[in-house]
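Subject: ABC transporter permease

B.,
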Amino acid sequence: MPFEWFVALRYLRDAKGQTALILAAVSVGVSVIVFLSALINGLQVSLIDKTLGSQPHITLQVQREAARPLVDPSNDLAVARSVQPAPQRLRSIDQWPLVMADAERTAGVVAASAAIVGAGFAVRAEAKNAIVVRGVDPERFLAIIDVRKRMRAGRFDVAGGDAVIGVVLANELGVGVGDKIRITTTEGIDDVVAITGVFSLGNEAVDKTWVITSLRRAQTLYALPGGATSIELKVADVFAAEAVAGELRGRTGLKADSWMKINAELLTGLSAQSSSKSMIQFFVVLAVALGIASVLIVSVVQKSREIGILRAVGTPRGRVLRIFLIQGAVLGLLGSFVGSALGALLSKLFEGLVRGPDGAPKFPVQLDLELFVLATALAVGVGLLAAVLPARRASRLDPALAIRNG
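Prediction pasted inline below.
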């Protein structure tokens, strides 16, 4: 065993009480970091999944139509204008297959799907409900929003004249799988569709209005042969959605809205959660660092005579310095192992305490290798930094004074 390691471990073993105390402090600190990080990360993932589970990350659409002047001013004519917003109509994206192919090639985009989204009414006997018709390419659409996993009854099949509808809409219309409803669109076109499935995306507004059918059927319903009113995208990093949207906005000239823009309040809440996690981690790390530093400083004072003897027999300052740095690193490493295990155990116990009606935990936690590696690196780094001051003090002790006064 190298000399520095032998002496460092000997010092830790001789001061069993101090070593146990600082190991307990580091372990508790690391367990708090692991527990809170797992809890906050789990809540964020769950919140994002519930919010983005019913919407694409980015939506490309045609720009809104601007108001046009009815009369232009001239040298002999002054016009007092009253500018009114132009009425908006459902329009197809020009050459949308090329636009979609271009969007798919954009860095960060993992899936793209063309759609026609329009308003209308669903009629069944005396019931008449306002709806949102979504005409989609099934395979591409499922890569954006996996409705297939959220089916409450039937199956996801929108081929031909079939459609799937939200569970709230199905209850209000009093229909189920195999029944038929009449759809009337804003273009004055109506048609009858058969219901092949009922889904629940966990969003009441969606479950109450969505009717998903094929893209071809929607093109007929809205008199847009071969058209698509929007291109929906999914990105690998949800927090990079606005950056990707900005790039596509500049390149295509289309209106590009990301979930970060549409759900600004959600983004603010997620940012606040991340900030609170960082603040808690900072104060925990500070407390652990002060604990390690204080114990090692006491150790330097107690071991002054031994350190003086080491210096007197020719031990270089660098070796003395490394002895205390090794102690800090060892305390941080051992504390991180114990703390990570304790934090993971607490996280799993807390996750199982409260469950919803469906059996899913109300407070999900997210434990991954990255979190444990980060906690270990943080603890070892804090241990080394906290040991710097005691180590410098030990290496600068005057051998004669240390032996005489020790």
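The chain has a mean pLDDT of 82.

T.
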